[in-house]
From TrEMBL:
Pfam families: rhaM
Organism the protein comes from: Micromonospora halotolerans
Domain of life of the organism encoding this protein: Bacteria
Name this polypeptide is given: L-rhamnose mutarotase
Length: 117
């Protein structure tokens, strides 16, 4: 199952507010993410505003497309857009570009032993 990691840049002047917004994400948004195939989804925030997202999904393009059909996603993206710097595509969900995974411990251990992990 593909693991996805992406980065975005949060305005360093708004980190506290950004963190506060994620303490209580709207229940409807949480449900939409789960229903659209976003599993084990986490965000990590560095003190300079670097945001790293990680999730597991069967098909990232399909998971993104499914979220685009949800009204709650449009509302959430509109509320959150002002927190981000360098959004060339208008909203954070459209600016996400997965990073290439170059090392995975579990995969290499499984390759060594010939056993699935």
């Amino acid at each position: 199952m593909p693991r996805i990691c992406f980065t975005l840049q949060v305005d360093p002047a708004r980190l506290d507010e950004y963190r506060a917004r994620h303490e209580r994400v709207w229940p409807e948004m949480l449900t939409a993410l789960a229903e659209c195939g976003w599993r084990d989804y986490s965000l990590f925030l560095r003190e300079d505003g670097l945001l790293v997202g990680f999730l597991v999904t069967d098909d990232f393009a399909a998971a993104l497309a499914a979220m685009q059909t949800r009204d709650v996603n449009a509302r959430w993206q509109a509320e959150m857009a002002s927190f981000f710097l360098h959004l060339d595509h208008g909203t954070a969900d459209r600016a996400m570009r997965p990073l290439d995974e170059i090392f995975n411990l579990e995969a290499q251990l499984a390759a060594q032993t010939g056993e699935p992990r």
